[in-house]
Specification:
319 residues; alpha/beta; eight-stranded mixed β-sheet; DUF6615 family protein; DUF6615
């Protein structure tokens, strides 16, 4: 099922909706990963393998099912390579936005040791790593500030075996994963363990980092771009240091993200975590059009991959 079809089923109610209805982004971030994990476990009984596209369709349709009219999905006429979907958080009043380019991978579990389960297509195609290169190479040319991410989908029995330290949906920095893919492509024979969940787990952070970052009590359901961007940057920076691979946002990111580091190479103060050149100074016309047509929910557009837009309320005097 395509993302557009999944969203259409959810919106029109023609038959059983594939996406459950969540009360808020925080509710979705809390409950959907476990549902995805259970869904992936079903394939053991069906004797078939669910592709990443199937899980991504559920995720997109679930976002579209959020109450209100603050979610718009732009659908492409033809899918192209480089990322499975884009997720944009936008605040129209301040014209601020942040975009996440997401590439999805699903786990092939190991029969006995959950840590040696592998994301076998991580260096797709044919262990060349071209897909990961495409994911990160274009973000600096985007009209919106863009952070590349991987979404890793994991079945429930693996989550249980991990002691629930792994969930059904885990996110990781696209820059960090790219560095590991580059190392795998270079080494022959391929003996590096970077496709294994046990090796990549130190980079994981939850879906709630984007959909439910820390914010004031009583704030609107959709978080502000500044809140989301700061939470994701902090998650990447912290996990980059813990993973022991020696890569950080300052080293890996395009020039506009390198300014997150201070002159001594250290992390800027929290209040400076979103420098001015990382803000969207003016929203692109394609985003403005989506906001204007938000009541339609699903909008065909000249995009290379499905784009989910979450529209946040803000006060321009406070930004």
């Amino acid at each position: 099922m395509s993302a557009a079809r999944a969203a259409s089923v959810c919106e029109k109610g023609d038959g059983l909706p594939i996406a459950p209805v969540f009360t808020s982004p925080c509710d979705l971030a809390s409950r959907l990963p476990a549902m995805i994990a259970e869904f992936l476990d079903v394939e053991k009984h069906l004797k078939r393998r669910f592709r990443e596209d199937s899980i991504t369709d559920i995720l997109i349709a679930s976002l579209l099912s959020l109450p209100g009219n603050d979610v718009v999905v732009q659908t492409p006429s033809e899918a192209k390579t480089g990322g499975d979907f884009d997720l944009v958080i936008v605040a129209p009043a301040s014209e601020d936005a942040v975009q996440f380019r997401v590439q999805a991978k699903r786990l092939t579990p190991h029969a006995n040791d959950w840590t040696t389960g592998s994301y076998v297509e991580l260096s797709h195609p044919h262990n060349s790593g071209i897909q990961s290169r495409l994911l990160v190479s274009g973000v600096g040319r985007e009209s919106l500030p863009t952070i590349p991410l991987y979404a890793f989908y994991n079945p429930a029995h693996v989550c249980a075996a991990s002691g629930d330290t792994v969930t059904g949906i885990e996110l990781a920095s696209g820059w960090e994963i790219r560095e590991r893919v580059k190392a795998m492509v270079k080494i022959k024979p391929k003996r590096l363990p970077y496709k294994r969940i046990g090796s990549l787990q130190p980079l994981f952070f939850p879906l709630s980092t984007i959909l439910c970052p820390p914010r004031p009590v009583g704030a609107p359901a959709i978080p502000l771009p500044t809140e989301v961007r700061s939470a994701v940057e902090e998650a990447i920076e912290m996990r980059s240091a813990l993973a022991g691979f020696g890569q950080t946002l300052r080293i890996l990111a395009p020039p506009q993200v390198q300014s997150l580091a201070g002159p001594d190479g250290g992390r800027r103060r929290r209040s400076d975590a979103v420098p001015r050149d990382l803000r969207a100074r003016q929203l692109p016309a394609i985003i403005r059009t989506a906001i204007e047509r938000r009541d339609e929910r699903i909008v065909p557009a000249r995009v290379k991959r499905p784009r989910v837009i979450l529209i946040a309320e803000d006060n321009p005097s406070e930004t």
